[in-house]
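Annotators were shown the component list below and the corresponding predicted structure, then asked to write short factual statements about the assembly.
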Amino acid sequence: MIENKKILKKDTCPVSTALAIIGGKWSMLIIFSIGNEKRRFGELKRLIPTISEKMLIQELKKLTNTGILNRKAYKEIPPKVEYSLTKDGLKILPIIDQIKIFGTELIKNNSNL
Amino acid sequence: MIENKKILKKDTCPVSTALAIIGGKWSMLIIFSIGNEKRRFGELKRLIPTISEKMLIQELKKLTNTGILNRKAYKEIPPKVEYSLTKDGLKILPIIDQIKIFGTELIKNNSNL
DNA sequence: AGTATTACATACCTTTAGGTTATTACCTTA
DNA sequence: TAAGGTAATAACCTAAAGGTATGTAATACT
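Structure shown to annotators:
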């Protein structure tokens, strides 16, 4: 095999790299929902009721693999897994704030949105 | 007809609204490439050689319709059209800066990216 | 008459993101 | 023994994003 592991495409542009991680439909909402807390899988499901389970774990896995989230699995039954933001992940919170402010202003200025 | 004009879906969340505009593959790159200048269509094509013409006009149209870009068409032949950032559009530049910084740090910390 | 220039349109196709539903592993407790 | 609770997986499908290729309008210049 030439290339085995599926990794995000090496991108020269740091903005594209960041967007590959936080640009999707759910990433920011998940990151925002975790914030400074530790959140269990089921807890996130309840916090974001419109997300499908598939997308939730898929995103959690991606964010974990890219160093945005910590994942702590307790050896218990029924399973218990806690997600929290890493040092890098915490850096996204102010970006989300900025985008939120921008979005709010945009809606105010543009009745079409 | 019930709903005629195609508009971006009314979204309760300002972050989603913002992402619908700047979350795609090309929007930020286009906005960044315009910056504080006036840029012609062909000029942008040259600045972003990897974008297809279709995506370029498509995005320029979307950004114009959502109040991010000004479009000034000169009545000349061959055509001449200049795009520039609106007041709202300019607000995206610092967001892009933030994301760029974040992406750069992320790449530094994560050799997988 | 023919060619070049420039912004844009249109038809068609491929790829990716995201959604739906069902299923599993494991232990505890009724 | 059966049911319940939790995190995760797999198969399958739809819709949307994006890419390729070609065409058009209008005029000036040769």
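Statements collected:
1. Residues 40-42, 53-54, 57, 61, 73, 76-81 of chain A lie near DNA strand D (CB under 10 Å from a C1').
2. The domain at 14-109 of chain A is CATH 1.10.10.10 (Arc Repressor Mutant, subunit A).
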